[in-house]
Amino acid sequence: MNLDLLKYFLDLSVTLNFTETAERFYTTQGNISKHIIALEKELNTALFSRKHRKIELTGAGKALLPHAEKLLSDYSVLQNALIPFQNSKKPLLRIGAIPVMVNYNVTGLIAEFHHKYPDILLDVKEVESIHLPGELNEGNCDIAYIRLFETDTDKYEKITAEYDQFAAVLPQNHPLAENTVILLSDLKEEHFLQLDKNTQLFNQFYALCQKAGFNPDVSYIGTHMDMILDFISKGMGVSLMMQNSVKRLNRPGIVIHPLDITIKSELAFIRPKNRHHSSVSNQFWDFLSYKYL
């Protein structure tokens, strides 16, 4: 089986839109459709129903989801396990980072390190903040870029890159869009569209609303920030998100305003204390220290 077909299937199961999935893979809607049809032929079953210009997962498609995710995950683990043997003469640095690292220019920082030390192999993988300490503790990565609301300073060394805080994200035509500061209590009747619990932000968002005196009406929870922002730009609701992360996307159709009460987060690189670190890990740590300390 061509595992790329499973990648297209998984993305389409989230977007339920051929055009959006095509844009994510920098290809055409027609190509995505051909790939899905090829997968359906190989499995001898329909994975999506296509009615009235809308698509939905069939029962078979829903059954395939967890198996497709596991196959791709296992293949990724296999590839990572073979990297040291494929490039045995080069040292390897493994970095785990939250998916929104690009919004904080961490990709640019890693690229700068790569250009400075081209002989060091980089294995960078996206991991949600709640899973990153486990990845470090199990030795699956050397250094992690993580969002922190509190830090166990007994366990980890830390280099802080920047701070961020919750802000209100509203449609451009929202009645409160012209306000300089948003009173969180003024949003108590709104429908909220939020990133899910794996991002570590959902529980903080919920606590913030309760502090303002209400339980939020959450109408959508998802894993893709760009999709949530698109929904907001179309007037489907509001959100509480990290201010700097959203601002740097320059998304049209929305406004981002500070809140009267908020919660701050820290964006930092961490690595375990009291552990022997490789020379390349120390090299990257020194590079970070020069940049931020």
Q: What features would you describe in this structure?
A:
The chain is of the alpha/beta class and 293 residues long. It is 40% helix and 24% strand. It contains ten helices and eleven strands. The strands form three sheets. Strands 3, 4, 5, 6, 9, 10 and 11 form a seven-stranded mixed sheet that branches. Strands 1-2 form a two-stranded antiparallel ribbon.
Largest sheet: 7 strands, mixed
Helix fraction? Answer: 40-55%
Number of helices: 10
SSE arrangement, N to C: HHHEEHEHEHEEEHEHEHEEH
Strand content: 15-25%
What is the distance, rounded to the nearest whole angstrom, between the alpha carbons of the first and last residues?
49 Å
Q: How many E strands?
A: 11
Structural class: alpha/beta
What is the CA-based Rg, rounded?
21 Å
Show unreliable segments: none
The rough form would be described as flat
User: Mean pLDDT across all residues, rounded?
Assistant: 91
Structural key phrases:
single chain, 293 residues, 10 helices, alpha/beta, two-stranded antiparallel ribbon
SSE topology:
Elements: H1 3-15, H2 18-24, H3 29-43, E1 48-51, E2 54-57, H4 59-86, E3 92-97, H5 106-116, E4 121-126, H6 132-137, E5 143-148, E6 156-171, E7 191-195, H7 202-211, E8 217-222, H8 225-233, E9 239-242, H9 243-247, E10 254-258, E11 264-272, H10 279-292
Parallel strand pairs: 3-4, 3-5, 7-8
Antiparallel strand pairs: 1-2, 5-11, 6-9, 6-10, 6-11
Helix pairs in contact: 1-3, 1-4, 2-3
